[in-house]
Amino acid sequence: MTQKFLDTSYTERDAAAVRAFYNDWAGSYEAEISENGYATPARCAAALAECVEDTSQPLLDFGCGTGLGGLAFKSAGFETIDGVDLSEAMLEQARAKGIYRNLEQIEADSTPRDGYALIAAIGVIGIGAGPISLLDTLMHALPSGGKLVFTFNDQSLADPDSTGRLNEWLDCGAARLLFSEHGAHLPARDIESTVYVVEKA
Asked: Dihedral (C-alpha) 97, 194, 134, 160: value to the nearest 10 degrees?
């Protein structure tokens, strides 16, 4: 019987444990989340496409996993996509899709390289993945006018620190909210998420 990882994915763990968890899950990840109706990548790609005039500029898929986000962005018209992730096993799955210009394994404290006016973090910030401080890291990496598409699932939204950190950026005028929509994430599990697109001032 194939091990089910989704049941324990929303568990607090340190960076080394996150990497080990996703390395172990890589082989069955897509099958398991697909059977639960994973809707978030397509929602993120559509939201970002709605907010961007030039889809030829490079997009960084931060925490790209097996590349499902990259597939969604490619389908939405984005032409140049790079990906980074903690898990080399996940990156192997992404590499096999042939849609990324560059793929790189990173450490938990890595800062995105300069040069990306578009960054995506799909399911990357929250319990069981990256800390809320990652939102600051990604926002600081953007140039003025750069855009970040990211998600908070229901578990993250239940933590006031998540929306609180986002509001710190918005309330002081350091960023502008372009898009926010709550909707399907894993319908079979009755889990939803909010997709945000923010523009750095």
From this structure: -160
pLDDT in tens, 46-83: 999 999 999 999 999 999 999 999 999 999 999 999 99
Task: Express each pLDDT in 88-141 by its tens digit.
Answer: 999 999 999 999 999 999 987 888 888 899 999 999 998 767 889 999 999 999
Look at domain 6-200 and name its CATH class. alpha beta
Cα 199 to the center of its chain, rounded Å: 16
CB atoms within 10 A of CB 195: 23
Residues 49 and 129: their CA atoms lie apart, in Å, by 25
**CB 91 within 8 Å of CB 103:** yes
Domain ranges of the chain: 6-200
- Looking at residue 193, its pLDDT comes to 95
Q: Burial letters for 14-28: b for 16+ Cβ neighbours within 10 Å, e otherwise? A: eeeebbebbbebbee
